[in-house]
Amino acid sequence: MGAVRLVLGGAILGLFWGGFQRTIATSDNVNGLCDSSPCVCDQHGRLTCDCNNENQELTLSAEGERKLSPHTSRITVRNCSSVILTNSSLESMTGLRSVELINIVNLTLFTRSFVLSPKTSRAIISIHSANIDILPSFVFRGDMESISFENVHIGLISAFAFANLAGTDTLRLEECEIDSIEEQAFKKFDVNYLHIIGGIFGGNQVPSRAMNDIEVFTTFRMDGVKIGVIRSSGFVIKKPKTLSIQNCIIDTLESEAFDITTRGGVLIKNNRFNNVAAGSFLSIRRDSTSIGVSLPEITFTNNSLGVFEEGSIMFDRSSFKPIIDNIFINRSCDCAMLSLWKNNLLNYTNVYTRFYTGNTQLSINSLEAIEEGTYLCINYDNNIINFQDFDIHNCTMGNSTIIWLIIIVGIVLTIIIGIVMIIWCCRRRRNHVQKRWMSVPTTAPDVVSKKNGVIGRDGSSSSGPVDSRITMVVPDGRLYRETEFHVIVEKAEPLTTEL
Ligand SMILES: *[C@@H]1O[C@H](CO)[C@@H](O)[C@H](O)[C@H]1NC(C)=O
Ligand SMILES: *[C@@H]1O[C@H](CO)[C@@H](O)[C@H](O)[C@H]1NC(C)=O
Ligand SMILES: *[C@@H]1O[C@H](CO)[C@@H](O)[C@H](O)[C@H]1NC(C)=O
Ligand SMILES: *[C@@H]1O[C@H](CO)[C@@H](O)[C@H](O)[C@H]1NC(C)=O
Ligand SMILES: *[C@@H]1O[C@H](CO)[C@@H](O)[C@H](O)[C@H]1NC(C)=O
Ligand SMILES: *[C@@H]1O[C@H](CO)[C@@H](O)[C@H](O)[C@H]1NC(C)=O
Predict the structure, then answer these.
(1) InterPro entries given for it (predicted)?
(2) What is the Å distance from ligand 5's center to 329 Cα?
(3) Residue 157's CATH number
(4) Which has fewest Cβ within 10 Å: 39, 100, 256, 447?
(5) CA of 393 to the centre of ligand 4 (A)
(6) pLDDT of 34-87, one tens digit each?
């Protein structure tokens, strides 16, 4: 009897225990994270978690006690200090429509964190105001209609972070601060719109092939982005109908930084390029499938350039008709440099042929002169002035001043020479006059010429003797201008010299 009771009791206990276990499992399965603060679910499969900025760590996972339901359709997480989205935690949700993570101080992602079920379609991923230390490789996969990061700080985008996207319409990074980007961070996917708006892209540098083999069907746009160095082939992008680079501050562009084939026009305006190597824009070309009758335009206006060289602003002339205008050379104007600068930007025969040696693409129109637009530099008063005005006010004017100076100096010299001449002439004349009229009392004693017995002044070369007795002293010549002297010398002595 006692034994029977014991067995029965054991059986009941066992049943009870089993039931207890099953209820826990069931409740786990059905509700999971839905039942645990700070999250709530509704009957449409929406999961909303709001940590209210309490210092709370929230883990989103497909496993464990507080797991995500596979029936979740929308996930919204707000105001949490730390959110961890584990491996493949979204992969079982076949009806997932959107994931929205807002105001997360520390968002931790793993490889496959955003891998979606193959049955999911057109999901929206949106991360707003968050810090992500590392965006790991292969974090995304699946049919995502749009991925947008807004006001997100990302320490590092690993290689292949953005890869395996299928059917994505828009990839948008807005006001994001990205400290570092690995090569091939954006690798081989296609989107309609790829927009990078504001913020800092890549800290010091965008490495070679940071964006590699991306097909953008409609628009690739960079607007107001700050970038350090863009290495050669930093952006390798195909097919955009419009390509626009606007309001950006780019420290250095290496040669062929943008390797982009477009199916339409290109707009590069209001940017600041501090250092631009030759041929930085040369690899922006027209997609070979879109050869139309007339060339699309590549517009390069209102950009500021710091350091550049011959061919820095060189475009593929067989792809585009370049329009270059309003170039601000962010340097002090220099009369000697103005035409050189302009020539470096517009006339780059040498460099162009160097880039195209052995290439048949050098078409005839490639070296046609580009219409000259406005060029600006900084004048001596730190104002921005166009080349022409500067030239007129400082260079041409400078030349005329020099001419005036030369003329004035010339005139002064002529006057001085004239005065000197006049003085010299007067002296000469006076001397002459004095000589003419005062020939008698010269310093050199006269000599008696033996010729015809006449006394002359024909020099001491004739070997006549000096006779001091014929020297006459006459007072100032002026008084005796009109005086004629008739001097008769009579000699009684015999001549001492032989005849
Ligand atoms: C939570 O985030 C929302 C924005 O999603 C914000 O408006 C709200 O003020 C935040 N709540 C707290 C308590 O910070
Ligand atoms: C995530 O998955 C990858 C590969 O499946 C694995 O190497 C990694 O350790 C996983 N990480 C975590 C946190 O489970
Ligand atoms: C963010 O959270 C992860 C995991 O909890 C941690 O390893 C990391 O140090 C945190 N980062 C910051 C900046 O707090
Ligand atoms: C030229 O670009 C600068 C920024 O570089 C901008 O502030 C200015 O408004 C632009 N001017 C025009 C006429 O677009
Ligand atoms: C010109 O260059 C100086 C420094 O070199 C910089 O501070 C300034 O913003 C630049 N101006 C423009 C319009 O690029
Ligand atoms: C372009 O530069 C070359 C020398 O580099 C010069 O001979 C030629 O006249 C220049 N053409 C124009 C249009 O300035």
Answers:
(1) LRR_dom_sf
(2) 10
(3) 3.80.10.10
(4) 100
(5) 25
(6) 877 789 999 999 999 999 878 888 999 998 888 899 999 999 999 999 999 999
